[in-house]
Amino acid sequence: MNHFAVRRASVAASTTVAGLVSGALLTAAIAPGASAVASTTSAAPAASRTAHDARGDMHGHGADIHSVRVVNEKAVRVVVHHQDLVRSYTSNAGIKVYLDTDRDARGPEYVFMGGIFEGADYALQTAEHWKATGVVPLQDRYRMRLDYRDEITRIRLSRKALGHPDAVRVTVRTGGDLDGRRVTDWLHGVRHFTRWVPQA
What's this model's pTM, rounded to 2 decimal places? Predict the structure, then answer.
């Protein structure tokens, strides 16, 4: 097991599945040089925001992002709708959710990463300069659930795991293998964050 893999995803029916995510998935390079800016989001209550992404960015790969919803209440929840999630490991599909919790510091303080095929692992890590720097302890409570029927990734993070932030914003990157090449999708472009979501 590589050092990123600390917990395994569950399917929507609450069945825990086994397996390992590939090192290439979790260590895929992030495009350099792009600045983080606020993206346009749809109207929503103060404690949640929904951002819609252009379809087809991954040229038919099922991990393509359709929308991302961020909820900041007793816990922080990130709900990602995809084009067509598949259980097979051959998709090598993965997700990275970068979480910005400090308005005064540039870039994200945390990154949640994992595979979104059946049996893949995931982990929440601290981040600096867009790179993972250390795994957040499991006792701080976070989880990911995969819904292959409705094409949804659901991530729940305790406020303790994120340092009890007053507000959060996120950007999401997915990736996968298609016809022998790696394809990726960013929500609204490389390193573009949603607007801030204050705690309810």
Answer: 0.79
